[in-house]
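Complex record, two chains
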Amino acid sequence: MQSDRQEQQLKFTRRALMMGVGGAAVFTALGGRLYQLQVIETERYRVLSEDNQFNFLLTPPSRGRILDRFGVPIADNRDSYRVVMIPEQVGNAEEALDRLGNVIEITPEQRDRILRNVSRAPRFRPITVRDDLDWGNFAAINLQTPDLPGIIPEVVEIRDYPSGEAFAHIVGYVQPAPEADAGDDPLLRHPGFRIGRTGAESAREDTLRGAAGSLKVEVNAFGRVIRELPEQSNLAVPGEDVRLTIDADAQRFAYDRLEGESAAAVAIDVESGDLLALASTPGFDPNQFVTGISQTDFNALNQNEFRPLYNKALQGTYPPASTFKAVVALAALEAGVVSPTERVTCTGSIPFGDREFHCWRRRGHGRVNLRDAVKTSCDIFFYEMAQRLGIDRIAAAARQFGLGSAPDIGLAGVSRGIVPDEQWKLSRYGQRWAQGETLITAIGQGFMLASPLQMAVMMARIASGRSVSPRLYLDRPADQGQELVQNPEHLDIVRDALRAVVHEPGGTSFYTLGGLGVEGVEMAGKTGSAQVYSISAAEREAGVRTQDELPWRLRDHGMFVCYAPADRPRYAVATVVEHGGGGSRAAARPARDILRFLIERDPSGAGPFTQNTDEGQPT
Amino acid sequence: MAVFRETVPRTFQEKLFELNWSVVLLLLLLGTVGVGMLYSAAEGAWNPWASRHFIRFGLGMVIMLVVALFPPRFWMGMAYPIYLGALTLLVGVEFIGETVNGAQRWLDVGPVRMQPSEIMKIAVVLAMARFYHDLPADKVNSAFGLLVPAFLLGAPAALILHQPDLGTAVLVVVTGAAIVFLAGLSWRIIIGGAIAAAFAIPAFLRFGLEDYQRRRIFTFLNPEDDPLGAGYHILQSKIALGSGGLTGRGFIEGTQTQLNFLPEKQTDFIFTILGEEFGLVGGLAVIGLYALVLANSVAIAASCKSTFLRLTVMGIATTFALYVFINVGMITGMLPVVGVPLPLISYGGTVMLAVLFGFGLILGAHIHRNAEPPRGAGLFG
């Protein structure tokens, strides 16, 4: 019995020891496993832990500004007040919106959008409740924040166009990148990030954008940011400012002067080619596009007969009409097909081929020399010059003076216009050139088309005698070009004639303008008017005799090109008033006023207002 | 009714003096580690876990001492009633239990919410120890000696598995098997049983498990296949442990823990926090504490004269060892995620009380190691 018990106890002890050894083995295995994880593989898990712990948040760069030549901001960044909601902090989103609705207005549509976003996004991600609040509402929310958990008023940077309309066409606007362009670029996909969509904002996107930074943040398992680590982050590189050659005051003046018309004006420094004003009316408010324009507003802009979204100064093309005569006159002199004193008789019309070609002045100008012909804009004289020069030489002159090709000013959509010749007509219409077409080309009609910018360049080249190129950005080199004439006297003759247009009785602008209106400074100019519609015999009988009696869209386009001072030219201006009617009156007065504005701003004539600028202007 | 006769009656103070103080000290250290880790799990706060853990631990230590002072004959007498009570509670859970995380484990008894399966772990040990105590040694391998333990073990295991709680069921079965082994099961039956199990286990995996349990086992095999799904827990735990390195990131400095990458960090994954914040050194130290507790327990068992006490001590020690092994094995990716807490360190009241109750029995066995209670004449006389 006793031995039995001892044997049993021994057996138990043996088996207990076996279990103890087994247990020790198992615990050793645990220790080994820990050693494997924590010593052998620790590096791998440390990396995984870092991946878990840290995230990089994209920080969009601050966009460069667009400044005028003096540094006045045209496109700037301003603080925008908005209010966001963090769903996980507000609890019930609907109740939170009810409470917030007592402080600021939340429309049912906004409410639906917010609740939709809340249900879709992770609950720690902020949802925009209202954008671009005014200060009053923003202050009211700030006051109430203790009672509005999870509702956060924030200040963000948003694009601002302080004098919107006048610059809308040059500067353009920014908008969120369209889905197709955004691709996988995280910056373009960043909410609130906007890229240039039109104008200089788009053309100089690379300069203005800058580079996104990344902010290292510590996140928890739900992706919520616990801590920001700016010292371990790459800061965003802000975009660079872009300086335009535009003079903001001149631009605004030009825009205001043309307001109410569907018109364009271009002012240029004839020596440097700097564009001082590029106005197109009516404009639009680019700020509307930044924050999201309503469909109604957009339709209103799009359907407006005056086409506010269209940049007429660059994109619009019009027959240059009689403004082209200065170029033809110069070409005739240079080609030696006419002498300054030779007279051509104008009887009001000449027969050519099987039809009559009329002068605008039905009763004729009598015997006119070249100077008279420019001054009075005699068509018959230029029909004669056309026959002597031939279309090739006319076209060559037109191209020399900047027509027929799009000047590269660094904006999209600049029109080429048309300088027709035999080759052009053959390839465009598959027809041979008709000799009569040479005649109407010489007076800037027919197939010929030019933008207001090209007309301004044409005038700048006549004023300077050099092939100056227009320039819009100060960071681009100015191109003063080559001498354009072989004999400077020819240029003097044409310029003298252009002065006479304004200053001498009989000049086409003598009665409408009579001068620049600045003591001791004379100007030179040339009128033009492009027929849009011929008043028919039937209408003439029904009493419609003048342009003013026609519907707006059928009236002639009026245009005027000019420069000043007449003796040592510095500024040139071209204006086109669509359907301005009644000859060129509608275009001449604004052009003269813009020119006077520029001259008065630069009384010394030293160049485009180099005074008061910190940085030297390459003029 | 079995009656113990103590050869030398001892006073309360004498018994307290005989207490195995090294085991008590080791348990105190483990409880302290638990309080510290729960303080860290709450990102350095006493609430909600550390303070309550502390209180429960204190209460549990008192219960442990009280249990230790009762003579073995008392617990022998209570073995079957406790077992039947626990079985009743388990059946009760089946019908009126509370469902938490898809498993019906909890029973609301007035103000106390408890897990009868935790009580059953102790009850099975007591009942089987009593059974073998009463059973003559030559009957261990008889049909009677095999079927009764099979029922004592099978009934609660089936009920627990049905909750379903795979971890606890495995724990109960393995503990019971250890007692049967220690009671003297013949090697022939052991080998035969092992072969039978080799066939039974695949069948069980296929038909005996809930979907989520099966998925856990499969993701255990390759957790990184599905890092955001079911393998997430294991992967995050391994990342935490691995990034802890040799010496850890420091107290309350574990990023995985503090940034909530760990699930159920206050219960099943508490060792992960330890490993992340104190590294291999901390982890081995705690495993060492457990090993010392177990070594002491085996020594106590070996010193006991009665079968009841020997089997009780070894049974409870086995349960305790399994807790540690399954938990650490699980959080290190060696075993499937089966939801077993780390004794004395994980947050959880029932487990804490059950474990300390069990150590009360172990300490009691040490105090009464020389007691030789007669075979019971009761049920199986």
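Note: The interface with chain B takes residues 4, 8-9, 11-13, 15-17, 19-20, 23-24, 26-27, 29-31, 33-35, 37-39, 41-42, 44-46, 48-49, 52-53, 218-222, 226 of chain A (CB under 8 Å).
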